[in-house]
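Tokens for chain A. Residues wanted.
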């Protein structure tokens, strides 16, 4: 049986792998080289087909720029998501640690029940201090 900590670690590994893969593509200029290669593959012609060929060349160039923009945006989103995931995971860890410390001080028999009672009674878990700038999305 997979424990929740294990599944979190697996997800984080997969996320990190995807980010590393995109970084290697970006740093290796593989994508940029392919785009340049496509742009340099211009079809040349004489006669009646020139306007159609120019249209195809323009279309290929537009597609190559769109792919490059899409790649760069995807990379940035993935990188930012990883940073937010790590920050929120650390914040939740700090909150859990504080809850555990509170329960240890009380020598509680049912810590989960105490957490609910504490929240209902307005116990201050210093969420703003713990969460800091982490923004939780709905």
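Reply:
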């Amino acid at each position: 049986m997979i424990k929740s900590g294990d599944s979190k670690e697996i997800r984080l590994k997969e996320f990190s792998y995807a980010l590393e893969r995109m970084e290697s593509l970006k740093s290796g200029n593989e994508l940029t080289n392919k785009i340049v290669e496509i742009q340099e593959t211009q079809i040349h012609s004489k006669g009646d087909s020139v306007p159609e060929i120019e249209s195809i060349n323009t279309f290929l160039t537009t597609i190559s720029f769109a792919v490059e923009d899409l790649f760069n945006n995807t990379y940035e989103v993935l990188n930012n998501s990883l940073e937010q995931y790590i920050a929120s995971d650390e914040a939740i860890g700090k909150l859990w640690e504080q809850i555990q410390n509170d329960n240890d001080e009380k020598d509680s028999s049912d810590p989960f029940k105490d957490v609910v009672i504490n929240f209902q009674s307005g116990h201050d878990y210093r969420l703003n201090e713990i969460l800091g700038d982490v923004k939780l999305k709905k």
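The mean pLDDT is 67. The chain has one domain: 12-131.
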